Amino acid sequence: PAQDERQFTLAMADATAAVLVPPLVAALGRDASRVDLRVEPLTTRDPRPQLERGAADAAIGFFPDVARALAASGGQGETMLEPLYECEYVCVLRHDHPLCRQDALTLDDYCAADHARVSFAGRKHGFVDEALARLGRARRVMLTINHFATAAQVVRQSDLLAVFPRTYVALSGFAEQLAIRPLPFELPRIEIGLLWHRRHERDPAQRWLREAIQRTAAQAMTPEAACRAQEAPAPAL
What we know:
Layout: E1 6-12, H1 14-30, E2 35-40, H2 48-52, E3 58-61, H3 64-72, E4 79-87, E5 89-94, H4 107-112, E6 114-118, H5 127-134, E7 140-145, H6 148-156, E8 161-165, H7 166-169, E9 178-181, E10 190-197, H8 204-220, H9 223-230
Parallel strand pairs: 1-2, 1-3, 6-7, 6-8
Antiparallel strand pairs: 3-10, 4-10, 5-8, 5-9
């Protein structure tokens, strides 16, 4: 990396990029790397076609359908997926929202509120809506948008609730204006993974890129870093 000029394209959501890109760039700078990075937004929960046609060198995100497909194939598919870190979804609302006066967010209050939904994949119903449907409940989504950063700005200036990865809140730039509440229903933790095409498996430059991403993720999720990333601004629970 200190000799060869290369450009790599990574596809990820802005919440994931907020966690990984700054420390990754810092690591490249310390290594005097001649590598350039291009980060593009994810537009799907299944970026395998994007990797197949070479539009990205790797994708980083939560890919449950891909994980199930790879497991069903016994790991013999054209793509490979490796876990990087886990995080949880939390409810986010403005610091002086009326619901912040309560000790806990109830399911009734959650469903009665208006919501902003982040859907970079363009899904009409996300994981939260599916979880509520299993309980026979639903929510009103006033706003659907494909960027967590814009959603954070909307939430801090309105009565809308949103669901964010906990790791993103402290990195959003609005941590002091946002409060965190546990979701009043069960939602599995999300596993952020690194996805790449099998044809790159033995390429030294691609292997170096994957190892750099893996090291960055491991360092970002050390107990100290994870604590900083998961701190909830008062008066969060």
